Automatic annotation (TrEMBL):
GO molecular function, one term: DNA binding
Species the sequence originates in: Amycolatopsis plumensis
Ranges where the HTH luxR-type domain occurs: 151-206
Superkingdom assignment: Bacteria
Name used for this protein in its record: DNA-binding response regulator
Amino acid sequence: MEKVTDVVMVRGEAELFERTAHLFEAATEISCAARDLHTWSVAHPAAPEREQSLRGMTVRKVYQPGVLIDPALAEHLRTMAAGGARIRITEREINETIILDRRIAIVAGDHVAGVRGYTVISSPALVQGIESLFEAAWHGATDLESYQARFTELGAREILEQLGSGCKDETAARALGVSLRTYRRRVAELMELLGASSRFQAGARAREAGLL
């Protein structure tokens, strides 16, 4: 472990858990931003402990849309929400971060030789800056229930697959069993949902979010 003033760098989730378990146990407010549910598995209690773990806590989590592709992961999100966590979805790139009680920030780094690095920060100035980035992501994101309802209603997964295949609109509409007009309307709505101004951009953002 390398320590520089109020910044501690650790390697792997085992060391991260060893160094921060007591912080998670004592925390009453947790803010989390991640691309998927695997980055912060250290912060996800087992099912029997989940209900107890959220009592008396304020938990906010922001994920990218890719978590909705896997039905099991989507169900896990709904379970967390039912347990009291507030969950939102964003198509924007996010810094994978956890903030504990507004005084400790944990930032996920890159994988090196198959092991991911994490930085634990307690400097008030640095934590405040990281918290500002999280708040911006949070306010720009969409509530899980609203996003998932829209995502399902549009048949987003199926449309993205058709767009990714490069087939013509007529062919895609037939494959999905809808009219050409309905298909094009859903594509336009999906582009709006992804914040894209073109089909190419929609595909690019979908890939970035792990949807394709």
